[in-house]
Amino acid sequence: MADQKTLPPGLREFSLAGKTALVIGAEHPAGGVAAITLAEAGANVMLAAQDVGAEEALGLAAKAAQATGVKAVVRMQRAAIRADLAATADRAVKDLGGLDILVTALDTPLYAPFEATDDSAYDRVMDENFKSVWMAYQEVGRVMLNRGGGSIVTISHVMAERGVPNAALYCAAQGAVRNLVRAAALEWARRNLRINLLECGWIEEPGSPALAPGEFGERLVKYLPYRRLLKPEEIAGALLYLASPASSFVTGEAVAVDGGLLCRV
Amino acid sequence: MILDRFKLDGKVAIITGGGRGLDRAMAVRFANCGADIVAAARTLDQLNETKALVEAAGRKCQIVPTDVGRSAEVNAMVAAAIKEFGRVDVMVNNAGIGEDSFGKSIDQITDDEWRRGMDVNLSSQFFCARAVIPHMLKAGHGKIINVASGYGLRGGKHNYMYACSKGAVLQLTRSLALTYAENNIQTNCIVPGIFPHNEAMMKFFKGGKFIPIGRPGNDEDVGPLAVFLAAEASNHINGELIIIDGGGLAGGVIPTGVAPGNPA
Q1: Which of A14, A225, A252 is opposite residue B6, by nearest beta carbon?
Q2: Strands A44-49 and A193-200, bridge-based pairing
Q3: Can you tell me the distance from the alpha carbon of B215 to that of A210, in angstroms, rounded to the nearest whole number?
Q4: Per-residue pLDDT tens digits for B206-224
């Protein structure tokens, strides 16, 4: 936990001392970074994961969060199941004493030619990338509204803003999340509950097509303004800015952490 | 530790603007995060108060009288900052005019008003970037923060010079960002919504009641964002427009305060 006594007075709004955060998707690299970042800034954290087999990654992230001196608890749930989300939100309040911050890091891509994607691909991509976020806003948002509001940050991808071949469904789901953030933010703007998006550039993480051998990864890296992939921990600053009272006049917006990639197009 | 990466200890920031609004809030905030300040403006009356506030926070403040719309004066200002501190880590291009000048019909606006507005709001940002970039290249790092406006993204009735100059600032941001991405110089843009700086503006914007969040911005809202963009915590953010407007640009296709329902 941050030593509040040595915190410069100019950073007071960035401190999360006494706050409670729920991170859904903490088994993903970006979600794990989010949990540790919030803990470092002083928040007690619940790390929720949905992937079977994610327990190990989750446990490591929880340990790192606990090492900062805050309370960190883990929870396994299914992301697009309403009853699970409602129970997760209740548990966060019960176990940690509040719920001021929600981070969703549920982004799960699918790369396949458009005409080859079938109905089951549609259901999976929309459930994992859009329905899960929509439902989390409803179920966790309800609890946050009842408790006086807070801040929601959804971690997504710059593909929310542009099209990419072989990723039509994923781009559509990301675009849906982008505009959900705008509309839901407007409804909750006067109830002290803010929602913003953190759009990542191409992250260095297992399973990324950018790391697969071949032409795509090689040409992509040369195209990126920084000539390298984004490390998950490089989203920490934007995550803390959006999650904390430092951004209290920002809602319905997106901040891209992409080294300038969106300037190109 | 993430909070350490927001600190500005030992950094030097040039901030343009006459000490009336955002610039003072940013200067004091930067000082409270450990930075020394160079304040550059043409009108100096209120900069002494900024200087006192920065010094009360335990940091140095150099005031350099500058007409930022004139490149020779900008070059001299940056040279003075380098002479005093030996470095410029952060350049905040905030100076601007005309935020309260809407309402004049197009035939009433003189060539001089148009040109002076473009000089102060747009050219100044180009001149300042041009003057600091060689120093940032030499140092191997730098942060340029341009201040635009929601009017850089939307039109306004009788709003010409202001909307055009602020829109161009977004483009200046993007091109600087791409050009110096590999030199560890990040250029980003703060896009404030309605921040009334006097009673007339507050009246013109009806107290901000049409802003989704329910209030207008105040200068203190921008301080933490400026710190974030000046600090190491934002090193992978580049060419980004960060909109700080209480939800204004998230909506806009219906009036604030009402919502459509299904017909009976």
Answers
A1: A14
A2: unpaired
A3: 44
A4: 888 899 999 999 999 999 9
Cα–Cα distance, B74 to B88 (Å, whole number)? 14
Cα–Cα distance measured from residue A16 to residue A12, given in angstroms and rounded to the nearest whole number: 9
- What pLDDT, in 10s, does the model give residues B39-52? 999 888 889 999 99
User: For chain B, what are the domain ranges?
Assistant: 2-248
E strand or H helix at A157, and its extent?
A: strand A150-157
- With tokens 């606006």, the residue in question is B109
How does DSSP classify residue B15? E
Note whether B247 contacts A251, CB cutoff 8 Å.
Answer: yes
Are residues B32 and A246, on separate chains, in Cβ contact within 8 Å? no
User: Using CA atoms, how far apart are residues A188 and A171, in angstroms rounded to an integer?
Assistant: 26
Of B214, B221, B224, the CB nearest to A14: B224
Nearby residues of A210 by Cβ (< 8 Å), 6 or more positions away: A202, A204, A216, A217, A220, A221, A229
Tell me if chain B has a CB within 8 Å of the CB of A5: no
CA distance B155 to chain A (A): 19
The whole-angstrom distance between A10's CA and the closest CA on chain B is: 5
**Alpha-carbon gap: B100 to the closest alpha carbon of chain A (Å):** 21
Are A11 and B2 within 8 A, CB to CB? no
Contact call for A260 and B213, based on CB within 8 A: no
In A34-63, the residues whose Cβ lies within 8 Å of chain B are 37, 40-41
Query: The tokens of B84 are what?
Result: 């005093």
Residue in B closest to A188 by C-alpha:
B213
User: Shortest Cα distance from B76 to chain A (angstroms)?
Assistant: 30
Helix-, strand-, coil-residue percentages of chain B, each rounded to 5: 45, 15, 40
CATH number corresponding to B2-248: 3.40.50.720
Residue B180 is a catalytic residue: no
CA B172 – CA B142 distance, rounded (Å): 16
Tell me the β-bridge partners of B147.
B190
- Please give the distance of CA B220 from its chain centroid, rounded to a whole number: 13
On the 0-12 / 13-18 / 19+ scale of CB atoms within 10 A, A238 is: buried
Each residue of A82-92: pLDDT tens digit?
999 999 999 99
Q: Over the range B136-160, which residues count as b (16 or more CB within 10 Å of their CB) and which as e?
A: beeeeebbbbbbbbbbbbeeeeebb
- Could you tell me the pTM of the whole model? 0.96
The predicted complex's ipTM stands at 0.95
Domains and CATH numbers, chain A: 9-257 (3.40.50.720)
* Residue pairs between chains A and B whose CB atoms are closer than 8 Å: 161
Sign, CA torsion B28/B88/B149/B104: positive
